[in-house]
Amino acid sequence: MRLLDGRDVEAQVYTFHGLADGKEHIALKFGKPGAAPLVRLHSECLTGDVFGSLRCDCGPQLHEALRLLNNEGGYLLYLRQEGRGIGLYSKLDAYRLQEQGRDTYAADRELGHGTDARDYTAAAQMLRALGLQRIELLSNNPDKSSQLEQHGIQVASRLTGVHANPHNVGYLRAKATQTHHVLATILPNFPVGAS
């Protein structure tokens, strides 16, 4: 694969059958991971990962993870959990509501969804299938580490960078205030009215 900086990197791809959610997730292994390797659980985001949407921080988080994993070794688990688990079409409907002033979570709730529909049981199954019991998790989301720990994976957290821009600062503020993502270091630099 080719990273955004133009470097070609090699990764071994793993597929899984019989996961709890029945979805087709993959894992990519970079380099020679250590005993407690760096791991990124990345939920699929077509708009951010592929089309470069500025509404979220998904694409930059994915590219940051790929760079770090290539440099240090580790695993990327690419999870089929579009729109925090509500699916692509519901996410696009939520975008419309966000344009009318709702934050990302209020929009999801108005559509009849919860705050975050993602379940990381399958991710824990994938990690165990890869022989991993202890990991260094690359994430700002405390729910990921909490759910993995509930499934017997020992987690040391490592924060990702915060990829803020004038188009996603409202989204990031909602993540920090409503689901306790660790993002406070950069958000004060953006005006409160930015969205």
UniProtKB/TrEMBL annotation:
Q: Which molecular-function annotations from GO does this UniProt entry contain?
A: GTP binding; GTP cyclohydrolase II activity; metal ion binding
Q: What does this protein do?
A: Catalyzes the conversion of GTP to 2,5-diamino-6-ribosylamino-4(3H)-pyrimidinone 5'-phosphate (DARP), formate and pyrophosphate.
The record's listing under InterPro entries reads:
GTP_cyclohydro_II (IPR032677), RibA (IPR000926), RibA-like_sf (IPR036144)
Top-rank taxon of the source lineage equals Bacteria
Give the Enzyme Commission number. 3.5.4.25
Q: What is the lineage of its organism?
A: Bacteria, Pseudomonadati, Pseudomonadota, Betaproteobacteria, Burkholderiales
Q: What is this protein called?
A: GTP cyclohydrolase II
Pfam families membership: GTP_cyclohydro2
| Functional pathway | Cofactor biosynthesis; riboflavin biosynthesis; 5-amino-6-(D-ribitylamino)uracil from GTP: step 1/4
Cofactor dependency: Zn(2+)
The protein's organism comes out as Achromobacter spanius
Enzyme class, first EC level, given as a word: hydrolase
